Amino acid sequence: MTTSLDSPIKESNIIPFVPTGHFYFTHGIQAFKKRRFQAAVKWLKKAVESDPEEPLYACQLSVIYTELGSYHAANQVLTDVLAKFGKEYVDCYYLMANNYAHLGLLNDAKKYAETYLDQPGDGEFKEAAEQLLAMLESLDEDDGDDDEWAFDDEDDLLIYQETAFYHLEQEEWEEALSILDEMTELFPEFTLARHKYAYALFMNGKQDEAIEIEQKWLEKEPTNIHCHVNLATFLLEQGRSEDAKPHFERLRNVFPMHEQQKLFVAETLARAGYYSEAVERFRMLKGKQVVQRRVYYKWYSIAAYHTGNPSKALHLWEKGCQSFPKLSSEGGPWIHR
What we know:
This protein is mainly α. The chain is built from 18 helices and no strands. The N and C termini lie far apart (76 Å). This is Tetratricopeptide repeat protein.
């Protein structure tokens, strides 16, 4: 059967589907609710590209970046929204303040929180912004020594934490586990003890159990710094560097406010071989309670050595050996890679 070129062509009943920004946005929100953050980023980026005049899509993308710990990326998106749409989206100021606080850029965090509160009306994040500003102002009054190991008004807790810390520093895992187990029962709000318990458990040979503890916690709190620190350390110790990489990458984008957390991140980056970044993090430490610890001397020394500063490395190592004689049995910073 032949068809004449002159015969009319039947119109197709098929209506072509052209995805809209709303289509991509909906899929992005669904992925976000299921905590599939990378997929959510992909969908939201498509939504922004499809409809750049809808600031809601960009704002939601920034929220997902914040969940991922990509605080710089989140603030870049929010800056673009403010530049394009002006003061219509004043919530951006609070979101940026929150991101700067996570990055440890406290002056910027304070500035944007104040800018948000200066806007007319009662914004959705008014109470949260006031709480953030109060916390930032309290940190300004601090002497830099505050960290999660120091609650001076809790004498019993202080005794427990110092005892646990001593055993951890001496690598006396059984003793540390015993103390930390009691701490988690007596002071359930002191969550750092649970993470230190998992660390001691791993180092005491119960690796699978320790990893399971942190993975379950991470499912509930994807941005928990201690989970990423522990899992990065555990997986690296097992030689699973590829599995550890996402945790290291997350920590590279995190600049905590507390000195203790800063030390954890610096140590972990040094373990991963990000020596230059680790050195910068160690230089930022100033609290007495962290710069006199074994891990500080050990990993700062190693990072300094591998960034071309052997004299600094040797000075740190020798000082560490004076306070922690067991460190001398580990050879020196040149042994570790």
